[in-house]
Write a structure and sequence with these properties.
heterotrimer; A alpha+beta (166); B alpha+beta (787); C alpha+beta (333); B: 787 residues; Aldehyde Oxidoreductase, domain 4; seven-stranded mixed β-sheet; C: 333 residues; alpha+beta; Enolase-like, domain 1; 12 strands; 21% strand
Amino acid sequence: MKKNVRIVINGAEHRAEVEPRLLLVHFLREVAGLTGTHIGCETSLCGACTVLLDGMAVKSCTVLAVQADGRSITTIEGLAASENLHPIQEAFWEEHGLQCGYCTPGMILCAHDLLQQNASPSEQEIRDGIGGNLCRCTGYQHIVNAVKAASRKMNQRQRAAARAAD
Amino acid sequence: MAEYKWPAPAERTLIGKRISRVDGAVKVSGHAKYSYDYNPKGLLFGKVLRCPHAHARVTSIDTSAAEKMAGIKAVQIVQKPGTEVLWQGDDIVAVAAVDEPTAEDAIRAIQVKYEVLPHNVSDAEPPAGAGEGPAGPMTEDDLENALGNQVPDAQVISDLQKRGVTFQVTDDMTKELKGYGVSDAVINALKAAAYHPEAASQPRSPYQKMAAQTQGDPDKGFASAEVTSEGVYGAPVITHCCLETHGSAAEWPSSDHLLVHCSTQGVSGLPDQYAQALKIPAGNVRAHQDHIGGGFGSKFSPDRWGIATAQLSKSAGGKPVKYMLERDSELMTAGARPSAYARVKVAAKGDGTLVAWQSDSWGTGGPAGAGSPPLPYVFEIPNQRKQHTAVRTNQGPARAWRAPNHPQAAVITMCALDDLAHKLNMDPVEFFAKNLDMTGPRAPIYKEELPLAAELMGWKQKWHPRGDKSEGPIKRGVGLSMHTWGGRGHASNCLLSIHPDGSVDIKMGSQDLGTGTRTAILIVAADSLGIPMNAITLNIGDTMYPPDGGSGGSTTIGGVSSSTRRAALMALDQLFAKVAPALKAQPADLEARDGTVRVKSEPSRSLSWKQACAKLGAMPLSVTGKNPGPGNLINSGVGGVGMADVSVDTETGIVKVNKMVAVQDCGLVINLKTAESQCYGALIMGISYALYEEKVLDPVTGRMLNPNMEFYRLAGLRDIPELMVHMMTDPLNENRGVIGLGEPPVISPGAAISNAVANAIGVRVPFLPLTPDRVLAALEQQQKAGA
Amino acid sequence: MRAFEYTSPTTRQQAVELLAGSWDQSAVLAGGTDLLSLMKDDVVAPKRVVNIKDIRELHGVRFGPRGMQIGALTSLGELADHPLVRQHYPAFGDAVVEAASQQIRNMATLGGNICQRPRCWYFRSGFGLTPKTPEGKSLVEEGDNRYHAILGNDGAALFVSPSSIVPAMIAYGARIRIAGPKGAREVALEKFFVIPRTESEREHDLRPNEIVTDVFLPPPAAGRYAHYEVRQKESFDWPLVLAAVALQMNGNTVRSAKVVMGYVAPVPWVSEEAAQALVGKTVTEQTAQAAGEAAVSQAKPLSRNRYKVQLARVAVKRAILQAAQGKAEGGAA
């Protein structure tokens, strides 16, 4: 018994008729064609499938597409507002916060959730905040550095924007 | 003709610097495509029915209900009735359907009956005498094992005469053995051996005792020693747990041409493997991979499921079929590191000089048993006696796991040596230093690395004799380990073209495992051609490009950097020949630097890169740089030191790592940023297998109990302490050329952490992972011994 | 995952009507973090899934003289960030923060946490709550029981109760409200959990057509509270053992105590022995140690989990010491 869903993904509306058992991660990857959201552990432990659901980081491998009906999703492809990279994305690149890159989209989106709540997290707060994301190859150190750098960048840009507005 | 060498330090513009990876933008933006992401229109989804038993015979398969289901496009029996299945999760039937849930429904509709057979999943210490005595006729595995482990001819011949064989000896087989250098005497004995076909199906002992190996005079050695230490050490079977599971997408553009997108560590090696299984010419197979989400040694083959995927696609009229393993299948079947344990006796003179080693080791790599780790590790102790027993078990087969056999060898050796240092009342750093001359050609580098690592760790301030005497339940300690690895560059072909418009492109069949191979190739090419990295287009990861070695054994960096360097130098030779007249110079007087081609002695006499390339005329120039090739650009053999600082809660047995140090050489570093990153990454993998990782198999059902990421634990962000990495980049090391680095730094952490725990709590926890139950048990033993 | 019918009622009345009288017919979906994993592994396969997230009245936190009323659909994330939770029920707050990673806290609900199924690896492999060998012996006793029960393990059920938040809630005296076809009923959270004797029973007192709708925490009494987990990893991990304690003090001596252990028994384990050991005593290393000993005095470890007895002893001791060292918490101190 299929259900109609309407899900706004990265600002664009997607309508589809789906089986209730279709997971959000499969909706994103196979229906919407956005494969930046990766499948890792399938049981909400590794965080590779993290997306923002109404701005909140969630693991899309344990959310049904029908649960996201009428809601808004941001995937890694939609994080940057323009052609440029988002400051968190820049920071992950510059600070070498990735190797194979498979965990990276999830790490970045979870870091986004963290930095929305806490613009200047301490090292421990970073480790706590993105502790739900596993990486097998970077050593994490560069990931922590990347989130710190992203926080600095975002704070600087916000200050610059505030000055410009004055 | 160019001289094939690396640029002098002063001339390097990119080599050895910290360069951000070139694939960073696509990876952080979600646009990087992994094999899992291949998603063409009309894609069918594969699923595999897997055997739930650890040991069983398939008796019947009924796929009729599945075949009738709507949305099912192909059904493929992978292992027919009659097949003996040796581990849980082995592939039985594969299906392809319009979507994944439908494929799952079909799997549930397939009826498979099994005759369940007795299983053994335990790799506990073999009972005394196991594997000895009349062993029954030799199987092909036994023979291979004997020949592969340098068992003396006389013994092999005697075994063949006495025991006979379970298999038919064919001409092809003897020809092949001859090709491997097996002696005529052995081959004649094999031909004459009695054939016992009935024995092939009889139950066999799970224990396979290898020939004992002796060096020097161990009895004399032990007799002459002043201090002897005995202990048991080891590490269990662990898995690779790649974040991107194994798998592929396959399609048939025409009836005899196959295209696969496969998550692989060796793109160029795939066609032959598919061709053999599918009976098509290897030249008709195209394999492609842009990015891979981890391999760690486990992704070199299309695997049974990959061949089935190709067969499903064929049955479905050539439509693309994708099958990626589920997480549980990945952990059950797609790779395990063999376990290794040993009872060790090791002895030294009173001044700490090592004199004798004895080890009785055992371990499992699944149904085929497992070879012995290289014992004693790093140190060539003059008198040795070693005996290894392979334990056959019904767990998934072993695969190479980052530095195969070395982490296990390090745990067994370095822990035994640390215990000996304790008995000698010596600081382990001094004890290891004392014996460094036994480490062979790497001795000079260890002599530099050991004090440096101690300095970075703050060893002098932190080390204390065994057992932290401070108040309270939390005890702190430090430990060390050393390791070695080869890492000589593999065969590589770099097809480099310079076009008359000044553009440059490179085509290589290599792959980037995330280690930064793309970046390294571009660094070498750009540094050599004197143009920016982004002026070069790099194409890798496809069998359309010249073949390149698989990324295993830390061989990629040496391979691709040297072939690229050679290609660039060859290309410059040709370019300079065309440009020289315009600059009124000899080709040998020219150099390519800062985006120009210029006269070395008079840099102002120059052409821009674009102007220079215009001299090529209508045709691009195209060269293939190879490895191996002229010049000494690469080398083999690295040494490294790892140190750990841990806290142990003696009331709960919880171990927390406070700091890790890795000091590592790898010859000439191409990209310091990615080189260091290999070490950082190796340290987390090391912490993970030291403290958490273990493939848990149920003794009753033979099933894996933790085929998931909740009870197959990986270290998370909060478990990772301060990590310090130091690369040995002095000229002496650089002059050796490029050597691989991916594996060596992962070898020492397990042993270093185990030694640090022993230093903290005053007692050895024999086996990894150092879980609370094991730590508490060791403390209890200690208490009993003290009481 | 097998196909199912998906429904999204907007009132609790509708929800209860959609739920069937047997477990294999229907299941309640809230955050989904546990249910969907169970369905993927084919451990449960309900024919109908009743999504209760659209029932607005089940969301949110209210605080008043009767204490705190928490709608069962309130996410762990909301609770972790809720100032009144941190202020009045700090040990509960600690447990919530440690219970899951950020992403899971954003989805998972308090009701779901209470009703989550055991993590027992035999259960999750489809062998049931009281798994048996072909010969009829206990699979857990014969097999690998390193994470299994050390208390309350006389019967067939040897798994451990999975919630790491419930023990703290019990220490605070939580009650829950349950809606069913015959209306609502309220039970003490402590009494909600039961040890199943056979495969046909569940680990809690919830019928297939009932839903947990609210959690009540009584007004914060002056007292000292703590929650202590022993986990192998510091990053998210299931605890090996945990303890939550509530101490009501009379000056420096303990007037009454509640000691609740998690991950030691098929139910959250309230240790009367440990409480008794504390009453009338001042809290010192020695009395806390004695309470820890008392807490495990009835423990009967299985073949591979003797270490958990030690962990439970230490968790109880440390929770007591942590509670005593902390400033007096709760409302009118």
